[in-house]
Amino acid sequence: MDQPFFSVIIPTFNQANFLSETLKSLKLQTFKDFEVIVIDNFSVDNTEKIVKKFNFKIIYKKLNNHGIIAKSRNFGLSLSRGKWICFLDSDDTWTSDKLDYIFNEITKKKFDVIC
User: Fold this and answer.
1) In the chain, N or C: fewer CB atoms in 10 Å?
2) What distance in Å separates the CA atoms of residue 89 and residue 15, rounded to the nearest whole number?
3) CA 6 to CA 26: how far, in whole Å?
4) Which of 68, 54, 107 is nearest to 84 (CA)?
5) 3-class secondary structure per residue, 39-86
6) What contacts 114, CB < 8 A, 6 or more positions away?
């Protein structure tokens, strides 16, 4: 399996009402070489149902992070295969050209981190 350019890691807990828009913003990306990893802190809302309704590959895992969101991000990192890591909160969205823009900046200049 080819290595994706980006791994997008989304930690979440009971954000189903926002997560749909977050995932839609990823589905609409013009740059397509990325994977999506959703780490769910055992939500009790419709989070899992929201993830499953999207028809693109999403790695979905559950982790009890005991209120420490960094545990979810680190677990996502352990699953990631991308050359570059992106963090996206489950109540945020990206413009459709976000990954294209970042990719172009990375290829034009030498970066270790972009934020």
Assistant:
1) C
2) 10
3) 12
4) 107
5) EECCCCCCHHHHHHHCCCCEEEEECCCCCCHHHHHHHHHHHCCCCEEE
6) 102, 105, 106
pLDDT tens string, the chain, 115 residues long: the values are 689 999 999 999 999 999 999 999 999 999 999 999 999 999 999 999 999 998 888 999 999 999 899 999 999 999 999 999 999 999 999 999 999 999 999 999 888 888 8
Distances in Å between the alpha carbon of 80 and those of 17, 20, 113?
25, 21, 17
Encoded tokens for 111: 């970066």
Q: 105, 111 in Cβ contact below 8 A?
A: yes
